[in-house]
Amino acid sequence: MQTILLVDDEQRMLDLVALFLEPHGYQCIKVTGGKKAIETLKKSKIDLVLLDVMMPEMDGWEVCEAIREFSNVPIILLTARSDKFDLVKGLNTGADDYVTKPFDEGELVARVNALLRRVTQDTSGKEQIQYQDFSLNTEAYALNYKDLTAQLTLKEFLIIKALISRPAKTFTREELIESGWAFDTYTDVRTVDSHIRNLREKLRNAGFPIDEFLKTVWGIGYKWS
Amino acid sequence: MQTILLVDDEQRMLDLVALFLEPHGYQCIKVTGGKKAIETLKKSKIDLVLLDVMMPEMDGWEVCEAIREFSNVPIILLTARSDKFDLVKGLNTGADDYVTKPFDEGELVARVNALLRRVTQDTSGKEQIQYQDFSLNTEAYALNYKDLTAQLTLKEFLIIKALISRPAKTFTREELIESGWAFDTYTDVRTVDSHIRNLREKLRNAGFPIDEFLKTVWGIGYKWS
DNA sequence: TAATAATATGATGATTTGGTAAAGGGGGCG
DNA sequence: CGCCCCCTTTACCAAATCATCATATTATTA
User: Residue B85's pLDDT is what?
Assistant: First the structure.
């Protein structure tokens, strides 16, 4: 089952497009606006993006460029028939294809099929660790929250990974050390405190609401909740 | 120089389309009728086919199906605006895109560019790898950025290829070595550092904004983003 | 509220890791 | 054969991370 992200400012259009695609075996995620689209892309596995060009705030090709900053997911633009200029601009900013409104079901599905057939993205073996708006990119060793991204060090990554993988479970410092590194060497448990401190500072500075999620459990250790 | 095969029954249309494409660096071969098109495809190197749907004898999608018997060359259909049914049928019989008549130069060229850009395999089996304004010339073993070009050595090419093919993924040095060379022989992981260094220096000197894209992930490896 | 225990914070030194330069080996080519 | 270029390795230095400790702060409990 492949997942398609639909981006438009009109709810009616989102519903219509989903109505077209879902009978053909595609799962649709509907979002309004470019920021939400980017957030969703960062935390979910998306196989293709259908993007309306005409949107308030961020227009289609702004979103397109923003997506190309971190992903090469296939993108199809939706636009009014008359916007020839949009077409050229869109295709030159990284979009892969283009559908003009009004379109019928057959045309849309055919284009989606054709593009996915071409791309055949290799997403196998990709772990997806997430919690609400947080998601851990296990390939980039980075933490995402909505449209924010923070690059983590190895130890920071290992700690966050352990915590988010089992929300609400309180980890002792010993558990965190053993789950991540130091199978052989001894490291002071207080070292975990330092990493937690560094994490909190880094993420706080990056704008993450980290204090609401990464919590100290007095006398025991740390947890995510 | 890429070669495009134009297929139509009207000589005037062939000339018009060639007039549009040739200024953009495409070599055009004009043929009238499906049989000649198939003959030409079998004996010449063709990068893309522009195929009119309305033709006597063999129509567009018959030709399309016939081509798909032996080749997966990219195909764009030319169709009258009203022929929605033809369009869907065409895309589902193996065409990759379509353009409705009447069309202007910008639209046609944009579609041709876009299709050639996203096609991962051209007729000679070479891959097209790109990221935003960067593209890898897998025949010349060179990296392009906008109008800049840098000649790479083999190892440099293999490293860049691995990185750009999967943006945002962090590669360990071992992964880079294994993905490119040394399936059998042992090579020190620090050799990758040397190649990265040479790449950065070479590309920086050539005017590439390489430091914004080729990044070190401390304790893990390198990534492109 | 004071005493106590645990964590947060700040500072620092140690350690790991990456960047850089330099040199040697080896193959291709004139 | 000799030159040049690429690849690889090594060594050294710089930078980032990691671990530890001392001190400040906060939470808990009597």
Answer: 57
Nearest Cβ partner for B114 among A85, A96, A114: A96
Q: How many residues does chain B have?
A: 225
What is the torsion angle, in degrees rounded to the nearest 10, for the CA atoms of residue A129, residue A131, residue A133 and residue A135? Answer: -20
How many Å does it take to go from CA A193 to C1' C3? 25
User: Please, which pLDDT band fits residue A119 given cuts at 50, 70 and 90?
Assistant: low
Is the separation of the CB atoms in B208 and B164 below 8 Å?
no
Minimum-distance CB partner of B91 among A91, A110, A139: A110
Q: Say whether both B6 and B105 belong to one domain.
A: yes
State the nearest Cα–Cα gap between A65 and chain B, in angstroms: 8
- With a threshold of 0.70, does the pTM exceed it? no
DSSP of A72-135, one letter per residue? ---EEEEEETT-HHHHHHHHHTT--EEEEES--HHHHHHHHHHHHHHH----TT---EEETTEE
pLDDT tens column, B161-192: 999 988 888 999 988 988 777 555 678 889 99
* One-letter identity of residue B46: I
Q: Could you count the other beta carbons within 10 Å of the beta carbon of residue B118? A: 21
Query: Higher-confidence residue: A104 or A85?
Result: A104
Distance B139 CA to D10 C1' (A): 34
Angstroms from A98 CA to nearest CA on chain B: 9
Q: Are residues A62 and A145 in the same domain?
A: no
My answer on whether B198 and B92 are in the same domain is: no
The boundaries of the domain holding residue A166 are: 129-224
**Whether residue B133 sits in one domain with residue B104:** no
CATH number for position A37 = 3.40.50.2300
Nucleotides of C under 7 A from a protein CB: 5-11, 16-22
pLDDT band at residue A56 using 50, 70 and 90 as cut-offs: confident
| Contact residues of B toward A, CB < 8 A | 84-85, 87-88, 91-92, 95-97, 104, 106-107, 109-111, 113-114, 118-120, 131-132, 166-170, 217-220, 223, 225
Let me know if residue A23 belongs to a domain. yes
In a domain, A124, yes or no: no
pLDDT at B29 over 80: yes
Chain A: residue nearest B168 by CA? Answer: A140
Average pLDDT over residues A154-168: 93
Q: Which residue of B has its CA nearest to A84?
A: B107
Tally of domains within chain A: 2
Same domain, A50 and A138: no
Q: For residue B208, give the CATH number of its domain.
A: 1.10.10.10
